[in-house]
Specification:
5 helices; single chain; mainly alpha
Length: 123
């Protein structure tokens, strides 16, 4: 993609592996949240948001912060891939619930979702 968090080409080059990079897709940040997402936030029907990158966290914060009237996020758990993602939210963790993957990978994010779902069933 056109936005990368890690220089794979450089790392492989250092390991002596020839790489020719080609962008397969272009990332474009959303300008607004979908109306159904806004409604779900307003009615408290959103339990969790998964944030896989600092860029996504910044976009989420910007879009939610622009909503008028403002929405209450105290019931929304933010599932973050890493501490860098949490930092990119730009808000103190005390404002809302945050869970961070123990390792920055998809398997650990899935584990977070499962843990959250299991806890909500127990309540």
């Amino acid at each position: 993609g056109d936005v990368v968090a890690f220089d794979v080409e450089g790392a492989l080059g250092e390991a002596g592996i020839k790489v020719r990079a080609a962008n397969a897709y272009r990332s474009v940040a959303a300008e607004t949240l979908a109306p159904e997402v806004i409604k779900a936030l307003q009615t408290g029907d959103v339990d969790a948001v998964t944030l896989m990158s600092p860029r996504t966290a910044k976009t989420w914060s910007r879009l939610v912060g622009a909503l008028s009237p403002p929405v209450q996020l105290s019931g929304v758990t933010h599932l973050c891939l890493s501490d860098r993602v949490v930092e990119a939210l730009g808000q103190p963790e005390k404002t809302f619930k945050v869970l961070v993957a123990s390792h920055p990978n998809l398997e650990e994010m899935i584990a977070l979702v499962k843990r959250l779902a299991a806890n909500s069933k127990a309540e």
